[in-house]
Amino acid sequence: MGNRNYTNYSKQNKPAEKAPEAPEVLDTVSTETDENVQNISENTETIDTAGNAAPEAQTTQPEPEPPEVLPGTPEAVIGVVVNCEKLNIREDANKSAEVLCVINKGEEVEIDEEDSTDDFYSVIYGKTKEVSVYGYCMKQYIKIN
Questions:
Q1: Tally of CB atoms within 10 A around 81
Q2: Smallest Cα–Cα separation from 84: which of 141, 124, 125?
Q3: Is 89 within 8 Å of 99 (Cβ atoms)?
Q4: Sheet holding 133-138, edge to edge
């Protein structure tokens, strides 16, 4: 390749370009922007690297009030199995009804006095309503606390 002379390619004389005009500067600041910034800062919280809100940014939930007991609403009546080692919970309030389960002496049952009869308590036995047994036990084997 030969040596080239680039001096012939220098800039041609062009008229000077006019600089663009600067935008007009306002003396006032938009209050709408200030309000938006304030709203954003009020609705943000600090998040740590584990994705948890920082303690100072967490809001506390008010503790729920205990449910109001309405006048005339009976409180739960609890009975304890006594006078026998094992007690049958039956499907109906009679001695020949099907046995649903057997509970031991000292076990507690909730008593529904409205559905009870002269000889049988209507009882609920169990920790939760999903796994509870609803039936009847003879009154002579349950002592109410």
A1: 21
A2: 141
A3: yes
A4: 99-104, 86-90, 133-138, 120-125, 108-112, 77-81, 142-144
User: Helix, strand, or coil here: 25?
Assistant: coil
Helix (H) or strand (E) holding 40: helix 31-42
Q: Map residue 69 onto helix, strand or coil.
A: coil
Is 134 within 8 Å of 110 (Cβ atoms)? no
The alpha carbon of 11 is separated from its chain's Cα centroid by a whole number of angstroms, namely: 74
**Under 8 Å between Cβ of 122 and 112:** yes
Question: Within the chain, how many helices (H) and strands (E) appear?
Answer: 1, 7
Task: Per-residue pLDDT tens, the chain, 145 aa: give them.
Answer: 556 655 555 555 555 566 666 666 555 555 555 555 555 555 555 555 565 655 555 566 677 665 554 455 457 899 999 999 999 999 999 999 999 999 999 999 999 999 999 999 999 998 666 778 999 999 999 999 8
Query: What DSSP state is assigned to residue 39?
Result: H
- Which residues make Cβ contacts (< 8 Å) with residue 107, sequence separation at least 6? 80, 81, 87, 125
Q: Does residue 137 contact residue 120 with C-beta atoms inside 8 Å? A: yes
- Residue 103: other Cβ atoms inside 10 A: 20
